[in-house]
Write a structure and sequence with these properties.
By secondary structure, the chain is an alpha/beta fold. The chain has twelve helices and 24 strands. Strand 12 (237-239) and strand 13 (244-246) form a beta hairpin. Keywords: Signal.
């Protein structure tokens, strides 16, 4: 038998001083991101820590949990295992495997006493590495992770729209503005992916290609065709000049209240999900640990912002910072659109590590060319977000409410001084806003939910649109790399205590 070693990375705050301890027998493991036979980029779970009286902790404990990944014979299996301390009485655990885990048991204990968590031992079968192509039925994926059907208002009106009509409309739309669009027409048929791209700058198809390749390995995608917007600006809208709707089926990474594009998670969030524990240093899990190194009571009570000059309000914010340095620390990291104005708005700021942003209690979110894709990461850190009023949105924005999940700012940011002063005077209420936002965004950006946003949308399009799914002669096939490492595509579902 080959002996394997588990690489265990336990992220803790070295300056932490705590007299609180968790009790293993009362503590629980929530295996929300693992299911036998379902391939994921990363397998993950949560540790919810309770003390000996059964009270849930709300801070980091003195003792540490320990995770073991064991084979059928009880030997440790070679995987990358990471525990992330979210500093609120919880740990995020995740496993990146580079081989097939045919039969595996996950065991969680108190590192000091060796006692197991109340529901620690869980057995799984056929946890494949992410290069395996072992798609399961969509319904099985949905049931395994208890996911809801996607109900999208923007799909209303597409019930009788045919693929042929949609394709004609979009080709006509592109022909009228060839230099301002970057689009790809995708066809998925019998599990194979084809596309034809339009426009001069279509390099971002690497993100939509990567997404579809990953999804095709996870679930059996329906035969479907759709158009992907590779740019920032949405397209499906009301034609105001002709006073009629110009609606067509277009998938975008974000949209605007005047448009009707079908919204999926941003390429940034999707890239974080697919590259987790592999090539990225910042993702929706790691920021919950690195962004919480500074305790709430120790944070600097100033509004913080760093970003490039992609919108006038960002420049105005930098100017406000110069006038109100006791309340605002804001600066431009790169002058591109307004190079001649650097002397007015302040010198270019040096890079600030993202984790250091959260040394400040108030994170200011201002649009870029469209919605600023950093918002989910800002919310997942241990600060509160002051969000500019905006017509732009990402896939999870409908779940957020002003004053419940963020402090709203006027479009021109003219009330920012007033809002920061209010926040300083109402600290307990502001802390609850931050916690409420974290609960929502943590759920909406979980890897299985990010993947499900795409899977459920493709399923809905295939159900709503009419006509044949056809591959035209100009399309090229997107190649799905074949894994040369062992995989097991057993359809049996097997999760046991």
């Amino acid at each position: 038998m080959i002996h394997f070693v588990v690489l265990l990375l336990l992220e803790t705050c070295v300056s932490r001083v705590s007299s609180v301890r968790f009790d293993a027998e009362h503590s629980q493991v929530n295996y929300s991101g693992i299911a036998s036979g379902i391939t994921l980029p990363v397998y993950y779970f949560q540790l919810n820590l309770f003390d000996k009286n059964g009270e849930q902790l709300d801070e980091s404990p003195e003792n540490n949990p320990n995770v073991e990944v064991l084979g059928a014979d009880g030997s440790q299996i070679r995987s990358k295992v990471e525990l992330l301390d979210t500093k609120n009485g919880r740990f995020m655990g995740r496993i990146k495997t580079f081989q097939l885990l045919e039969k595996v048991t996950i065991r969680v204990t108190d590192e000091d006493s060796g006692k197991e968590f109340g529901n620690s031992r869980r057995r799984f079968e056929n946890l494949n590495h992410d290069e395996c192509s072992c798609p399961v039925e969509i319904e099985r994926f949905q049931e395994a992770f208890e996911l809801e059907h996607r109900e999208d208002d923007v799909l209303i009106g597409f019930d009788q729209m045919s693929y042929e009509s949609n394709n004609e409309q979009i080709r006509e739309y592109f022909a009228a503005r060839p230099n301002s669009c970057a689009l790809c027409h995708y066809v998925i048929k019998a599990g194979r992916i084809y596309r034809q791209c339009y426009g001069k700058h279509v390099g971002f198809n690497m993100f939509s290609d990567a997404t579809l390749i990953a999804l095709s390995r996870i679930v059996k995608l329906p035969d479907v065709q759709f158009w992907m917007n590779l740019g920032d600006w949405p397209h499906s809208t009301v034609n105001k000049k002709r006073k009629e709707e110009q609606l067509f089926q277009m998938v975008s990474w974000g949209s605007h209240q005047d448009f009707k594009d079908l919204v999926v998670p941003t390429y940034d969030l999707m890239d974080s999900t697919l590259g987790m524990m592999h090539r990225l240093s910042k993702d929706q899990f790691s920021v919950q640990s690195t962004g919480r190194q500074t305790q709430w009571t120790e944070k600097i009570e100033k509004g913080f912002f760093r970003g490039r000059d992609s919108r006038q309000e960002r420049l105005d914010l930098a100017e406000m910072s110069q006038k109100n340095p006791e309340l605002i620390d804001a600066a431009i990291t790169r002058y591109f659109f307004f190079k001649e104005d650097e002397s007015k708005y302040g010198p270019r700021s040096e890079h600030v590590p993202f984790a250091d942003h959260f040394k400040f209690k108030y994170q200011i979110n201002v649009d870029g060319t469209v919605a600023a894709y950093r918002l989910p990461y800002l919310i997942l850190g241990n600060s509160v977000v002051l969000k500019q009023e905006s017509a732009y949105y990402e896939h999870f924005y409908p779940k957020l409410e002003a004053w419940k999940h963020f402090i709203p700012l006027k479009r021109d940011l003219s009330d920012i001084v007033e809002k920061i002063q209010w926040a300083k005077e109402n600290d307990a209420e502001v802390a609850e806003i931050a916690r409420a936002a974290h609960r929502v965004v943590e759920k909406e950006t979980e890897p299985v939910r990010v993947l499900w946003s795409w899977i459920s949308l493709l399923k809905r399009i295939s159900e709503k649109m009419t006509g044949e799914v056809e591959i035209n002669d100009e399309m090229e096939e997107v190649q799905i790399p074949v894994s040369h490492r062992p995989c097991s595509c057993s359809s049996r579902q097997h999760n046991e205590l």
